[in-house]
Amino acid sequence: MTDRRIPLAELERGTPFEQRHIGPDAEARAKMLAQVGYGSLDELTAAAVPDAIKSVEALRLPGSRTEPEVLAELRSLADRNEVRTSMIGLGYYGTFTPPVILRNVLENPAWYTAYTPYQPEISQGRLEALLNFQTVVAELTGLPTSSASLLDESTAAAEAMALSRRVGKVKDGVFLVDADALPQTIAVVETRAEPTGVEVVVADLSEGIPAEVAERGVFGVLLQYPGASGAVRDLGPVIERAHELGAVVTVAADLLALTLLTPPGELGADIAVGTTQRFGVPMGFGGPHAGYMSVRENFARNLPGRLVGVSVDADGDRAYRLALQTREQHIRREKATSNICTAQVLLAVMAGMYAVYHGPDGLRAIARRTHRYAALLAEGLRAGGVEIVHGAFFDTLTARVPGRAAEVVAAALASGINLRLVDGDHVSVACDETTGRAQLAAVWAAFGVAGDIEALDAATDDALPADLLRADSYLTHPVFHRHRSETAMLRYLRRLADRDYALDRGMIPLGSCTMKLNATTEMEPVTWPEFGALHPFAPAEQASGYLTLIRELEERLAEVTGYDAVSLQPNAGSQGELAGLLAVRAYHRANGDTGRTVCLIPSSAHGTNAASAVMAGMKVVVVKTGENGDVDLADLHAKIERHGAELAVLMVTYPSTHGVFEEHIGDICAAVHDAGGQVYVDGANLNALVGLAKPGRFGSDVSHLNLHKTFCIPHGGGGPGVGPVGVRAHLAPYLPNHPLQPAAGPGTGVGPVSAAPWGSAGILPISWAYVRLMGGEGLKRATQVAVLAANYIAKRLEPHYPVLYTGPAGLVAHECIVDLRPLSKATGVSVDDIAKRLIDYGFHAPTMSFPVAGTLMIEPTESEDLAEIDRFCEAMIAIRREIDKVASGEWPADDNPLRNAPHTAAALGGEWDRPYSRTEAAFPTGVSAADKYWPPVRRIDGAFGDRNLVCSCPPLDAYDD
């Protein structure tokens, strides 16, 4: 025992969070460095990172703080937010998250640390949960095919506009939007329409489609049901007239209202869109929430985003998978009509489970109670002499109070209630699941009237039109009826989680996706009501803590990246891409360079780059990639020379999509700038740069960042994400803004790209906390260890699998690509076989066949410790020995552990006639029987699922045979 006195200040500091976040400790790092051939992290990154881009100054960020200190800071910020009762509506409502869902989904790493279910055999739990979500949406909207969620209601409406133009009969004409649509939706649709040459006409459609608009041609119509004003009207006549004109009709519908009202599909709509926020998902100052889209059957194969379908596995048993994956942007690229490559899976799971928890009867009861309060509120106001504009409504009413609207809103605010100030003469009030008698009394008082709830209840009829009441049954599948007790619900959630593989089980070594630690300390504040219960359109003074957090995060991200301004509004990386390209477009147009429309993109780039460029009104020109994985400089210069006068921007990922630090990035940027273009550096691989180099300082003008990669927001099974955009000063005037919140962006901005002013604000505390916990030096070390881990894996695997690309000094960046093509050619063992065999070893596979077909791209991140990294390496080496057995003929090419992987527990039962043993199948080298992960299904037949598309809960007797 030491007798050294440890200073109190040293004891008070506690364990730095950096040691919790970074997996390999000092001893492990020394071993890894020895394997790679360097003496220190600084030596390694000095060799790996080109001198031309290195940052010479340390990051100017506040010093790191401990977990208790950061939680205390966040508590202080949260306390500056004022949680009032918001009766503003406009697509955001108070809701009650069932605690069993709050704790066992939103707060459960088994759900929030999962990745997109591209490996369906180990994603059956969340795929079933998403199928529930799709079923809820499809049945409530009356349209048979629903996607597995979109980003929010407004962007879903914009996607519907693009879909209408693509599939409709009218190829010209205008997109007609009802004036009673949500104002943020109108604005997002206009932002998305303008670059692609679509004219949006906003008109009052309450009396039908104006003749002057019909004469111009209409390719699509967007209606709101109920309207933003609360009005419920029969949309059938307008839909019928739109169809006569050849238009595709989209109805933006409130799902809770649809438990009582005739669904859009029955009214004749072709597409339905909306949000599922009020199905148990906190408002979160605007997000994240799961948007939805459902369509008629003939539009199913044109749906944007992801679609969960039902297929079969190798034994013919039912299994779920993502269907129609050929629609993904990495295949269609510039031919894609949507850049959506993510969803809001975690929030969609919550919304679907809310319906499972309540069932159709419970949802109807919530809707009826919500409507009843609205009807009583309206009748009390009428009795006091206040005019209610619409006689039919669901949860929202608009009152006319000439010249008194601001006074009424102020009086309600003094009572702790936010109402919507429509204009000087009108106030809107929205009821929701959390509304009670006290709120009604306070609102009446704000209007200067009194109401007797009991007397009004006895004398007041409902305010829903009798001819629009829903008559059909919905949510009849047993899943929406079996789980009424909390015990049953708890076990259902656990059963589904156990079928999945997430970061709480082991490493997910996906290249390009950065599956790193999402620390509990970072996650905890997300569910605090001071962050979760704020309405995005509440008065700004009620969100002082939020706005401070947002400003500080913007400033710290700007410091990390070297940019001058950052917008946090884009709620996915794809939307950050679009926002950045729209800023470039607006900049050129402001300078009179309207002819600059060409976007150069290397052939190795992520497919969303090309899709985003087309959506921003640009023409994509592909630049070749050299044999070493770098941009082909000769081809780049040739393309610049050919398109110089019309060059708008070059989009390039750095480090490259091939996982290397290209040495000529500075020359590339300079060549584009010399031609008058801008440089967009895709921030997908920023985890290799933080603290080492800044894109905004080595030649880039704009980048989007993936907070769900580099800055610790969890992937949630395929969403949520945040994709902020950072720009240099000359592009700052063209960042996104918002019509309902002037502080959200510059007045000269391009318009909103998300429904809410700050996008998915509810999860921004995660990234704020990560940066605060790590400090500048901690962030730099995280980057260095990520680079070390990737190079360690590359060195260990290189004798067994060729590493396809390397950069300076033969090093990779934060990920490496191993080439399986020679092995596949020699043995017939495919990249799919290896990916599925890794499941038997207890691993999620690395990224398959991107950016090069027949390869695996591996990214360990800084969070995995050496034991887990070695376990992965040893599994890959053992698989190579198995491949050698196939090559030697010891195992037949069509009957071996790789071709038959993954192996379920059921597959081991009964007779066994394989040329390998049961032990070799299920317990290969290094796999402990005690800790074995058992996949729930065998390999899934993707082609069968695409041929037999089933995308909602099938009847239980569908698989009896």
UniProtKB/TrEMBL annotation:
Pfam families for this protein: GcvP2_C, GDC-P
Reactions this protein catalyses: N(6)-[(R)-lipoyl]-L-lysyl-[glycine-cleavage complex H protein] + glycine + H(+) = N(6)-[(R)-S(8)-aminomethyldihydrolipoyl]-L-lysyl-[glycine-cleavage complex H protein] + CO2
Domain Glycine dehydrogenase C-terminal: 782-903
The Glycine cleavage system P-protein N-terminal domain, residue ranges: 19-447, 454-736
Family annotation (InterPro entries): GcvP, GDC-P_C, GDC-P_N, GDC_P, PyrdxlP-dep_Trfase, PyrdxlP-dep_Trfase_major, PyrdxlP-dep_Trfase_small
Cofactor(s) essential for the protein: pyridoxal 5'-phosphate
Keyword Oxidoreductase: yes
Modified residues (N6-(pyridoxal phosphate)lysine): 709
Entry keywords, A to Z: Oxidoreductase, Pyridoxal phosphate
EC number: 1.4.4.2
Family named by the database record: Belongs to the GcvP family.
Job of this protein: The glycine cleavage system catalyzes the degradation of glycine. The P protein binds the alpha-amino group of glycine through its pyridoxal phosphate cofactor; CO(2) is released and the remaining methylamine moiety is then transferred to the lipoamide cofactor of the H protein.
Assembly description: The glycine cleavage system is composed of four proteins: P, T, L and H.
HAMAP family assigned to the protein according to its UniProt record, in alphabetical order: GcvP (MF_00711)
Protein name: Glycine dehydrogenase (decarboxylating)
